[in-house]
Amino acid sequence: MDRARRYLVAVLAVSLLGACAGAPEHPDKSFEGAWLVNGAFQTTAATPTSKPSQTWSRVALVLGGGGLRGYAHIGVLQALQEAGIHPDLVVGTSIGAIIGAAYASGTSPDQLWKQANSLHVSTLADLAWSGPGFVKGEALERWANGLVGEQPIESFPVRFAAVTTDMDQSLPFVITRGDAGEALRASAAIPGVFLPVESSGHLFVDGGVTSLVPVQAARALGADLVVAVDIYCHGPRYPSSSAVSMWLRVSQTQSCLLSGPEAESADVLIAPVITPAGVGDAEERELARRLGHDAAVAALPALQAALRQRNVTPVAAHAQQLQRSSPAP
């Protein structure tokens, strides 16, 4: 059993390094959203719908997928906080959805770093004995719900959306309401590793399959200015020295060719040059965090210029300024 568990953890680790999961349906843990077709939301694959009622968002932060490179996202959040920039909307795919949800739910970047840095990835490897994956994803769901304080998505202080992929429709599905743990599990369900998530009769897998850096989802949600973080496509490519590394390199090449135009359409693109952190390597996790921080600092002049050019003040930051300037009751 110990050998099987070690093998499972190794498979999970390899898949997380290359990441851009039928589980039973849980009616009490459902989520809601819409399909994204040509930049517009649709309630079905053929029925256009209007934008969600809350379209006041001005500045969106988009966090892309990339497995254990996700520690870099925390560094980006720390740099933005230091600069006094607080997004009004956070949209994420896969690990970007997990980090983004924790932040949007009210966790500070420094608190998030402590929580993520203490995580043992092996604790998320709950073995699946059958089905199209090795890992159930229930442990990931529980951990993710803990990160957000068991809040549903619509209760987050900052607007949030998680992007997953509907395998039946071959479309990105943008989740804006419902159980956060189930939504994040669907967004991060790496095909062939995690079991897919079944909800409302549809089968969902990792959002990176269709929208690795979900800029279009942020636009469709009403964002005026989009700051995107790509942690996957600007780092060194995998070597081709073994069967596994060759598979990872091909997967990365395909994902980045498909996602490149969407990521580049952001108003400001933060793209740290990063290799994935080791599963248990504290120094590599810290390096990933620092590279994300440094890349965000380097992008601040472009971001501040874009804010000035459009005369945009992030609503979240403006609200915090008003709160600080208001007299105490």
Biggest sheet architecture: 11 strands, mixed
Q: Give the end-to-end Cα distance, rounded to a whole number of Å.
A: 60 Å
- Count of helical regions: 10
Large-scale geometry:
globular
Word description of this protein:
By secondary structure, the chain is of the alpha/beta class. 40% of the residues lie in helices and 17% in strands. The protein has ten helices and eleven strands. It has helices at 2-17, 71-82, 95-104, 109-117, 138-147, 180-187, 215-220, 243-264, 282-309, 315-325; strands spanning 31-37, 40-44, 47-48, 59-63, 89-93, 159-166, 171-178, 197-199, 202-206, 225-229, 268-270. Strands 1, 2, 3, 4, 5, 6, 7, 8, 9, 10 and 11 form an eleven-stranded mixed sheet that branches. A hairpin with a 2-residue loop joins strand 2 (40-44) and strand 3 (47-48). Helix 2 (71-82) packs antiparallel against helix 4, helix 2 packs across helix 9 and helix 5 (138-147) crosses helix 6. Mean pLDDT is 84; it is low at 1-27, 50-55 and 317-329.
Helices, strands, pairings?
Elements: H1 2-17, E1 31-37, E2 40-44, E3 47-48, E4 59-63, H2 71-82, E5 89-93, H3 95-104, H4 109-117, H5 138-147, E6 159-166, E7 171-178, H6 180-187, E8 197-199, E9 202-206, H7 215-220, E10 225-229, H8 243-264, E11 268-270, H9 282-309, H10 315-325
Parallel strand pairs: 4-5, 4-10, 5-6, 10-11
Antiparallel strand pairs: 1-2, 1-7, 2-3, 6-7, 6-9, 8-9
Helix pairs in contact: 2-4, 2-9, 5-6
Please sum up the structure shown.
With 329 residues, the protein is α/β, with parallel strands linked by helices. It has 10 helices and 11 strands.
